[in-house]
Amino acid sequence: MKPLALLVLAFNFLLLALPSSAAAAEEGVWTKKSFAVSGTWSIVEEGERRYVQLSDDFKTKNAPDLKIFLSNHSLSDANGKNATKGAVLVGALPRVKGAVRLELPADVDVSKFATLLLHCEKYSKLWAAASLR
Hints:
The protein is 11% helix and 41% strand. By secondary structure, the chain is mainly beta.
């Protein structure tokens, strides 16, 4: 093989081996609990930071206090009364339509949680949930 061909082959191999700048660790769809939620979600990593990212086509009904949580409750067991017990707040939902990105707390191990929740904390109403496993 010619030296230039070897160099091109080695360069292509290195490109494939490098981690991408924004890799999705988890992703999925929402399951209706009280209200329908369209669009998808993903957990992405960029450098040392991780984010819950809602897709461009994300849409749900408006509420005064919608927040995203990580919960230990299973998809079937999560409800408005227990949703935030033992859960970790990711952040308040700034809008109910369109892409949203919320940074996860740095010390949170997502693999220790069972579900991602969309919850109206003011009225203890679980909007929707998504399985992380």
